[in-house]
Amino acid sequence: MTLPIRIAPSILAADFSKLGQEVRDVVDAGADWVHLDVMDGHFVPNISFGPDVIKSLRSYTSAFFDCHLMISPADPYLEAFAKAGCDGITVHAEAGPHLHRSLQTIRALGKKVGVTLNPATPLAAMENVLDDVDLILIMSVNPGFGGQKFIPAMTEKIRAAKALIGDRPIELEVDGGITAETIGAATAAGANVFVAGSAVYKGDGITAYRENIARLKAAAENGRG
Ligand code: DX5
Ligand code: ZN
Predict the structure, then answer these.
(1) Which of 34, 148, 200 most suits a substitution to test ligand 1, by most atoms within 8 Å of the C-beta?
(2) pLDDT tens-digit profile of 182-207?
(3) What is the pLDDT of residue 225?
(4) Which residue numbers are catalytic?
(5) How far apart are CA 36 and CA 19, in angstroms?
């Protein structure tokens, strides 16, 4: 099943002093989704923002809010993120002992269900919940910070995830170190959703963002061949 290529800019790389405008600009510049990186200073060594910030951004766009929870535990907060206006919620398989329950909770809240794995976690960690998810996110850096380098071994992991997905209509997303140079290999391996923070939010405002997104999309389509 071939799903459309989607670019999901991470607002982690945006100017936090004008986040609403930064979200609107990136969507006007051609972003398909908006990627929201939530960090708790416990599961990952950095702190970003929570549901109240997401709620305040909701009125700036109707674009899909792709929420990546790097928090542990996640379960007590899922409802708050759903109510804040997230359209999809992705949890880490490593974040708690009851992944299946977390996924069921997201489903019951009426949101798209995502699961993600750190670079060192084998795909086997989500094999048994494959039919409970709408999205698989392969982390291609260790989560916590933007601006890191794509870990080359993750290309093979993307390929293996794609094979596992088979004909299921599951979005295959990659997060970390995505640039015009690395995106093609990720597309060729089977990914269709690309998180990009620093590669999108560079340069000055919407004109630069439009060029950055166009370059990523072209390189992604190219990788598809
Ligand atoms: C890392 C985050 C990523 C990050 C991507 O913990 O999940 O979404 O912001 O940033 P870049 O594109 O700069 O690697
Ligand atoms: Zn992310």
Answers:
(1) 148
(2) 999 999 999 999 999 999 999 989 99
(3) 83
(4) 37, 175
(5) 11
Q: The pTM is what?
A: 0.98
Sole residue written with tokens 């933007």 = 146
Q: Coil, strand, or helix at residue 100?
A: helix
b/e burial code for range 2-36 (CB count within 10 A of at least 16 → b):
eeebbbbbbbbbbeeeebeebbbbbbebbbbbbbb
Other CB atoms within a 10 A radius of the CB of residue 86 amount to: 28
Rounded average pLDDT over 207-216: 98
Tokens coding 100: 């299946």
- Structural domains in the chain, CATH included, are 6-224 (3.20.20.70)
Q: What is the pLDDT of residues 129-148, one digit of tens each?
A: 999 999 999 999 999 999 99
200 Cα nearest atom in ligand 1? 12
Provide the residue type at 58 as one letter.
R
pLDDT at 1: 79
CA distance 138 to 116: 6
* Amino acid letter, residue 99: L
Question: Which ligand has the shortest distance to the CA of 201?
Answer: 1
